[in-house]
Amino acid sequence: MDSIKQEEIFQDWLARYKALFFKFVRAYAFKKTDQDDLFQEICIQVWKSIPNFRNDSAVSTWLYRVTMNTALSWVRKGKKHANSKPIDGYEPVVTTYQSDDDRLEWLYEQIAQLNKVDRALCLLMLDGFNYKEMSAMLGISSNNVGVKINRIKKKLIEKSKKLVNDEL
What we know:
Blueprint: H1 3-28, H2 32-49, H3 59-77, H4 79-82, H5 102-112, H6 116-126, H7 131-138, H8 142-167
Helix pairs in contact: 1-2, 1-3, 1-6, 2-3, 3-6, 6-8, 7-8
C-alpha cells in the first residue's frame, strides 16, 4: 500500500469514526492534556493499522479493536492515567460531541468511573455489539461478558434511582 492510499483511507476513517475515537478518549482520559495525548495516540495507531486491515471484519469493528486496545494500553502505560478519575465539576475538553441531554452526560460520567474493562464493555454495548463480538474484542468469554454487563446495568440502575431520589 502506498502512502497516498494510506492517507486517503486514514482521512476517510477519521471523518467517519471521529465520534468513536472521542467516545474512548472521553471514557479513559479526563484532563485536557491527557485527552489530547490519547486522541493523538489513537490516530497514530489507526494510521499504523491501516496496512494490516484485511477486510475480515467491518471497518467499525476493526477500529473499535484498535481504539479500545490503544486506550487500554495507554491507561496501563502510565500510572498517572490509570489512577485518574473525573473531577467533580470538571468540564470535559472534548466538547464537540457533548450532548445537551443531562441524562447522557450523567451516563458518560458513570461510565468514566468504571474500571477499564467495564468501560469498554459499556461503550461496546451502547454501540450495539453482541456478546460474541464483545467477547472477541476483549478476549473474555461470552458468558463473562453477559455477567459483567448484567452487573454494570444493576449498578447504573441503582445509581440512577439514588439520583432521582436525591433530586425529589
